Amino acid sequence: MSRSVCRGAGAEAGAALLTVLLLLVLLGALAAAVTIATRTETLIAANFRQSRETFHVAEAAAALAGHELAGLADWTSVVSGAVPSTFVDGASSGSRLLPGGDSATLCCGSGSLTADVQQRA
Fold first, then answer.
1. How many CB atoms lie within 10 A of CB 94?
2. pTM for the full model?
3. Residue 36 CB: number of other CB atoms within 10 A?
4. Structural domain boundaries of the chain?
5. Is 26 helix (H, G, I), strand (E, B) or coil?
6. From CA 96, how far away is CA 12, in angstroms rounded?
């Protein structure tokens, strides 16, 4: 039997395997970078949405307070605390029933809104 041998083939043995492995590593790194970038963009968008919601709620509260104060001739009773706002729905602690039927704990405990804010800070 005759064997045909390519000259110089010994120096290139395994080069294709090495090239494919290198490309797989590069593609894996690219996939990881895209995943991290996508996750970061999602977090940025959620943070932006929450900041806009907070801004609009604060702006509405300021408009409500301005509207209520505009109807008063003397603000002394408001400053002293004798006249409460019409927006007050109870003490600043405890639980509130939300329109959807869920409840929210306002202050001072695990699972409360203030604990959530303090945890994020």
1. 14
2. 0.52
3. 10
4. 16-83, 93-121
5. helix
6. 74
